[in-house]
């Protein structure tokens, strides 16, 4: 079984992001970029499936500028076998990503698509669900445990108030949550091998997808600064302030 | 001129940083306080280093090593250098000189050392032979097809965990235009060879958990097949293989300085006195600028030397400048970092006091700062010599 793992290049989670002066978005020039952490988890899971003999090939795909090659090389260094870069400039919205992935799926015919549940830059959390709808494949979202069966899989999902286990038929679209696994760091030999692994470059147009954004960003602004707290002198003062100032009781 | 790091370089840095933060940092406190590394801890870190392929990263790929070029190795060692020295050295970089192994030496020493089954140590220094290493008194006298070794070596790093020593001993005297000169031969001597004993060395202010030892040779007999390289040609082997160790010292100083600067910067940005972060005072912020400047200068010198080494042109001056600048930079950066933190900088809650203590040996070993300046100026003045 082939596993397809889409990965996204995002601002590194350690970076304290800054809003651009013209409020058109977040500053990405000279900022450290990395693989979306949820995608690292899906790459890790795919490699583990291969190591366990349950997958035969791990193919990673990224949609973005040429620099997304770095992210793909990273996935190859972790242990993926092959990479596809679908070049597209500017912001590509979840629906366009899902449409391109549908095209990639038609070519690659994977038995499983493992995606991060969301990207930490726009936090959309839409691509997996849209891809499930477009392909007509069963979907399992926010998955924290995967058990492959014969022609189906059991997925444990993190839902409000607990865990839910569902059974889906394969092929399926799965979006992974934080607790599925702890991604590995690339070992030195795998880093050296990564550059010899195949990386194909395609264009969004190859899949007949128009990536023009359907949404217009009007303004991006910093969250409001938190006001300083105050220290109250007594319980009665606290109650008085909660009643009359904060008006919460 | 291209100063950009490659994708592989960045991946090596990221993996090494994660390894150092996850596998080494958690044990720093223990090692600093006990001055010991528990054998189980040593083994488990070694296994992880082997799995990650960082072990023997300096050795050629065809021998089972990491096969890193000097720039990549420098970047790796910079990251490793952030951690306690004893812990980071578990991720061994066997002495490059072992690549001079021939015949059975390859299977008995070189390959097991790369695989982590044996640990090497290197013995040059003696109580009366420091910078003037050729004045060594430890001697090996031929007796048939054996050599009889007598003498003492000291300051021999990690001999307490080593399985064998790469030993330099005098095997005679030759007349040269500049007077008589000792002939030196390199031997591979196993721990436990009769007449060879190792004792714990001195307690150093630097590098807790990483010990120096005293080696005593009393009529220790070794077979001539234990000669590394050729008889009387010990310094030729050393010169061929040991040049890059100065870059190792430089690289590890860079990592340590970077860590100290990160701590100092965060402190300056968040520590409030007189109603504002102390970094808003130029007395503090200018220190940060100078520290960053010195670190960058040392890093450029070190990577430049490494790049020249990869391209076949590193001179003694290049290595000496990198080592000199990086070690003296660390003195300045670690001291100023403590100054910015004030009293808290001296406490062992933070790694700063350790980095400050550890920097001291870096200006001494692998050639003192004065020897490095001698190497640099000697090359400058040589064209004018009559």
TrEMBL record, chain A:
A GO biological process held by the record:
carboxylic acid catabolic process
Cofactor dependency = AMP
The signal peptide annotation in the UniProt record is none
What keywords is this UniProt entry annotated with? Answer: Electron transport, Transport
| Family matches, as InterPro entries | ET-Flavoprotein_bsu_CS, ETF_a/b_N, ETF_b, ETF_beta_N, Rossmann-like_a/b/a_fold
Q: Answer whether the UniProt record assigns the keyword Metal-binding to this protein.
A: no
Assembly information from the UniProt record:
Heterodimer of an alpha and a beta subunit.
The record's similarity note reads: Belongs to the ETF beta-subunit/FixA family.
This chain's protein is named Electron transfer flavoprotein subunit beta
Automatic annotation (TrEMBL), chain B:
> Looking at the record's lineage, which domain of life comes first?
Bacteria
Name the PROSITE patterns on file. ACYL_COA_DH_1 (PS00072), ACYL_COA_DH_2 (PS00073)
The name this protein goes by in its record: Acyl-CoA dehydrogenase
Q: What InterPro entries has UniProt attached to this entry?
A: Acyl-CoA_DH_CS (IPR006089), Acyl-CoA_Oxase/DH_mid-dom (IPR006091), Acyl-CoA_Oxase/DH_mid-dom_sf (IPR046373), AcylCo_DH-like_C (IPR036250), AcylCo_DH/oxidase_C (IPR009075), AcylCoA_DH/ox_N (IPR013786), AcylCoA_DH/ox_N_sf (IPR037069), AcylCoA_DH/oxidase_NM_dom_sf (IPR009100)
Reported cofactor(s)? FAD
Q: Which family does it belong to?
A: Belongs to the acyl-CoA dehydrogenase family.
Ordered alphabetically, the record's keywords are:
FAD, Flavoprotein, Oxidoreductase
Cite the source lineage. Bacteria, Pseudomonadati, Pseudomonadota, Alphaproteobacteria, Rhodospirillales
Q: Which organism is it from?
A: Aestuariispira insulae
List each copy of the Acyl-CoA dehydrogenase/oxidase C-terminal domain by range.
233-381
* MF annotations from Gene Ontology: acyl-CoA dehydrogenase activity; flavin adenine dinucleotide binding
Acyl-CoA dehydrogenase/oxidase N-terminal domain mapped to chain residues: 6-117
Q: For the Acyl-CoA oxidase/dehydrogenase middle domain, which residue ranges apply?
A: 121-220
Which Pfam family, just one, is annotated for this protein? Acyl-CoA_dh_1
